[in-house]
Amino acid sequence: MQAVIFVAILIFNFSYARSKTLNHKDYPYALLTQDHGILSNSDLAINSFDTDPVPFSGKHSPYPYWKCFEVSKTNFSCDTSGNSSVVKEQNAVQIITVQDTESEHFYMPRRATDLKNCRWFQKRWENATKGERFVCISGAFADYGIERGHRTSIWVFDKFKTHKSCTSFFADQCDIKAVMQNGCDI
Predict the structure, then answer these.
(1) Residue 89, Cβ density class (10 Å: 0-12 exposed, 13-18 middle, ≥19 buried)
(2) Residue 42: how many CB atoms within 10 A of its CB?
(3) Distance between CA atoms of 53 and 29, rounded to whole angstroms?
(4) How confident is the model at residue 171 (pLDDT cuts 50, 70, 90)?
């Protein structure tokens, strides 16, 4: 009996260790930086459900790539500068800004939302990144630009993840079981 339990523990530990090792063979294009142990194979797989994985080319692509950054180089804001007086509720665009050695990256959603929703995402960001060294952000590449004389890259925000939690723009996009229940298949 003790031998069976010992074998079961070994199998569980081996399976767990394998699940924490990213499978770059099945998802060779999903991650553009080191992940610092934050991402799982499920995170890489989810990004390939809606669109075919393609290598990053610096051209617009619907495929969401993961990039991980030091939290200290990131900022989350809710920009309300584009509001019109006709709109009854205050709208905002959530912007995650990353300043790294290469350039400045802007992760923005597909559209503006009400300020209350943006503040909800901001609170999730603050809770997820507090005390963390790294954060990983998933997004589709949109374009390069120049702002204040520096190169910028613009990404369509998909989700962010730390060791603590994952938050996605669309419901359940951090949960592979929920994604598969909604009809997607690996």
Answers:
(1) exposed
(2) 16
(3) 6
(4) low
pTM for the whole thing? 0.82
Which domain covers residue 120, as residue numbers?
A: 26-181
Alpha-carbon distance 121 to 144, whole Å?
25
In a domain, 108, yes or no: yes
In a domain, 20, yes or no: no
Question: pLDDT for 61-110, tens place per residue?
Answer: 899 999 999 999 999 999 988 665 666 568 899 999 999 877 899 999 98
SS3 39: coil
User: Domain tally for the chain?
Assistant: 1
SS3 74: strand
Q: Is position 17 within any domain?
A: no
Residue 11 domain flag:
no
